[in-house]
Design brief:
This protein is α/β, with parallel strands linked by helices. It has 5 helices and 7 strands. Strand 1, helix 2 and strand 2 form a beta-alpha-beta unit. It starts with 9 loop residues before the first helix and ends in a 9-residue tail after the last helix. GO terms for molecular function: RNA binding; RNA methyltransferase activity.
């Protein structure tokens, strides 16, 4: 079943959502699989992130966002330098298993942070790794080397919400 439009324009919906947005952002180096970027945008909408930074110029699959891109602030950064300038002064948290100093369960998550995800094949560049305030890994238990980037982004956003959601526990009593 399709969700009704509530008889509001896209801009009116964006205005209604603005005060509900959370004080963190997602950044992703354009993935080799354009579906992943759309899936990340869709998931970011579910967590009402402040904005989504897309680093690089590769295309992304808008249909995978399921229409949620129109409600999000998407900041297109053609390269790493433009991205780093856009987030200057904000805590930058890289998600990169091989260079991690902490895990998702232990990492600090200050307000205003930007979670940064690399592309599937290349991960994060040395330049982006050196710009990160911290680098975290998501614990893994199988023999895979990494999670799909869209899944990793969802897990990180979910952990942020678990720690920071002002509504507290939603577990039925």
């Amino acid at each position: 079943m399709k969700v009704p439009s509530f008889h509001l324009s896209t801009e009116e919906i964006r205005e209604e959502l603005a005060p509900l947005r959370h004080p963190f952002s997602i950044a992703v180096c354009r993935a080799k699989n354009p579906f992943n970027i759309g899936a990340i945008i869709r998931t970011a909408h579910s967590f009402l992130v402040r904005e989504v930074f897309l680093v690089g110029t590769e295309p992304w699959y808008e249909r995978a966002a399921m229409g949620m891109a129109k409600y999000e602030t998407i900041v297109e950064c053609p390269d790493e330098e433009v991205f780093l300038e856009a987030v200057r002064g904000r805590p930058l948290v890289g998600v990169e298993r091989d260079h991690a100093k902490t895990t998702l369960w232990e990492a600090e998550m200050p307000d205003g942070l930007v979670f940064l995800f690399g592309s599937e094949n290349d991960g994060l560049s040395d330049r982006l790794l050196s710009a990160c305030d911290q680098i975290l890994a998501i614990p893994m238990y199988g023999i895979n080397h990494s999670y799909p980037v869209a899944i990793a982004a969802g897990m990180v956003m979910c952990e942020w919400a678990r720690r920071k959601d002002p509504r507290g526990s939603l577990t039925p009593r």
